[in-house]
Amino acid sequence: MKVDIAIVGGGPAGLSAAYSASKKGAKVVLFEKDPSFGHNVRTSGVSWIKEIEKLGISKEHYNPIKNFSFISPNNEVNITGKEYTACVLDIKKTFQFLAVKAAGEGTILFVRSNVFEVKRKDEGRISGIKVSTPKGVVDVDASLVIDASGFNSFISRKLGYVSLWQRYGVGAEYECYCDKIDPETLQLMVGQKYSEAGYAWVFPLANNRVRIGVGIGRPESAVDPLTKLNKIMDRNLYPLSKLGKIQPIEVHYGMIPNEGLRKSCVYDGLMMIGDTAGQANPLVLEGIRYAIEFGQLAGKIGTDSLQFESTRASLKEYECVCRKTLEKKIQSALKVQSRWLSLSDEDWDKEIDIIKDLSIDEFLDFIKSDFSYYKMMKLALNHPKLVARQLFDLVINKHR
Ligand SMILES: Cc1cc2nc3c(=O)[nH]c(=O)nc-3n(C[C@H](O)[C@H](O)[C@H](O)COP(=O)(O)OP(=O)(O)OC[C@H]3O[C@@H](n4cnc5c(N)ncnc54)[C@H](O)[C@@H]3O)c2cc1C
Questions:
Q1: What spacing in Å lies between the alpha carbon of 150 and ligand 1's midpoint?
Q2: Mean pLDDT calculated for residue range 101-118
Q3: Where exactly are the structural domains of the chain?
Q4: Which atom of ligand 1 lies closest to the CA of 31?
Q5: Rounded to whole angstroms, what are the CA distances from 73 to 76, 87, 203?
Q6: Architecture of domain 2-39+91-163+264-326
Q7: CA quadruple 353, 355, 357, 359: dihedral, nearest 10
Q8: Atom of ligand 1 at shortest distance to CA of 155?
Q9: Ligand 1 centroid distance, CA of 40 (Å)
Q10: Is the pTM of this model over 0.70?
């Protein structure tokens, strides 16, 4: 098979790149190793309504959220919003919607198709891939390969351009039936009993349906998040005790990079997008909207690069936009995260008091890692206590 662009991985990044490249007229093929798009859920699916709708995901794909609870061992803050700002995505529905959009523009889609080999030209540059599909092995020649294989970065590692992530989060989650849920409130739980290095969550998906999970940072802790989650569920720890009867419907497990962007996201004939490129916000394990946004951008720039044989230089614009948009944001999020990872239970109880002082908009900027200079200055002026507690310094120091 000969194509312009071959995409490895049918998560939000790969599917979005496929859509925009096909729309621009490229001949595109995409391979997903799972039996269907969104088959193995590796995410808890929280996103932000304004941002995700701009990217084409409409309200039938999510449950809207307006309130937020932060729970520490001996403290709790409840932030009530006036309008819906966040959402919990129906992952299968959203990913399959992205797949249908790509197919509608002409992308050739393969499921249960594992990319197992990378082909190179004489000078070492990638020239295609080999894939085990339900129709047998498919040998693909491509001018450009887009690595959207997620955390495992299959292609980029095979080529020796990157190694396995050293810092990452591991998460386990049950999607459950529950008797009593508040469908408009996200709950985050912090402190040792919930996670040794991270946090636990209750994210409502619909009436009587909720995602309950635990995320743990490596290398700070070696605890398995599923073991931890089972303990929390068995002990029916607060706030689970408020949910009534809980029965699991699905179990989800996944890993997310926690290091920031790769040193380079483009090489001759290759682009990295989504988790492969390290585009997620590590503070709250949020990567879906970035995967879609930068997937779409990669599809466009990748298609334009075809006329220049998709050399590294012709792909540089993608690299520049990623760095300009994401690098500082992720670095600031990593600093706040590293502070959070060092907090004891008592520190967390005090930290919750600080969050109590924030307005809903300030809280949202913070949780989205929107640490622009202007917003942080405003925060500092409104909350001198916060500045004294290093947060301002942590984030603003980056500008010096
Ligand atoms: C526990 C956890 C909770 C999270 N919660 C949130 C959240 O609430 N909100 C949010 O925005 N983000 C969240 N994220 C992050 C988010 O899931 C990722 O950032 C996002 O899915 C990245 O998209 P992607 O397309 O790059 O990768 P992925 O979604 O991982 O997709 C990669 C795809 O490539 C396929 N693949 C891999 N190797 C091959 C191969 N060799 N051949 C063919 N196919 C292959 C995989 O099967 C997979 O379908 C969470 C992550 C974790 C781990």
A1: 5
A2: 98
A3: 2-39+91-163+264-326, 46-90+167-257, 331-399
A4: 43
A5: 8, 26, 19
A6: 3-Layer(bba) Sandwich (3.50)
A7: -160
A8: 41
A9: 9
A10: yes
- Sign of the Cα torsion 116, 173, 192, 351 reads positive
Q: Which two tokens stand for residue 187?
A: 């709950």
Residue nearest (by alpha carbon) to ligand 1 atom 1 = 171
Give tens-digit pLDDT for 314-368: 999 999 999 999 998 898 888 888 888 889 999 999 888 888 888 888 888 878 8
Counting Cα atoms < 13 Å in the Cβ hemisphere of 355 gives 23
Distance 215 CA to ligand 1 centre (A): 15
| Closest residue CA from atom 31 of ligand 1 | 11
CA-CA-CA-CA torsion sign (262, 264, 266, 267): negative
Q: Which atom of ligand 1 is nearest to the CA of 277?
A: 26
**DSSP 8-state assignment for residue 343:** -
Q: Distance (Å, rounded) from C-alpha 168 to C-alpha 166?
A: 6
Q: Measured between alpha carbons, how far is residue 295 from residues 40, 129, 270, 368 in Å? A: 20, 20, 13, 20
Q: Which residues line ligand 1 (CB under 6 A)?
A: 8-14, 31-34, 42-47, 114-115, 148-152, 154, 171, 215, 254-256, 274-276, 280, 285-289, 291
Residue pair 318/265 in contact (Cβ under 8 Å)? The answer is yes
pLDDT band of residue 375 (cuts 50, 70, 90) is low
Cα-to-centroid distance, 256 and ligand 1 (Å): 8
Mutate which of 256, 271, 273 for ligand 1 pocket (most atoms within 8 A of beta carbon): 256
Q: What is the CATH number of domain 46-90+167-257?
A: 3.30.9.10
Smallest CA separation from ligand 1 atom 33, residue: 9
| Sign of the torsion angle spanned by Cα atoms 149, 27, 266, 56 | negative
Q: Do 46-90+167-257 and 2-39+91-163+264-326 have the same topology in CATH?
A: no
Task: Report the atom number in ligand 1 closest to the C-alpha of 288.
Answer: 11
Grouping H, G, I as helix, E, B as strand and the rest as coil, residue 261 is coil
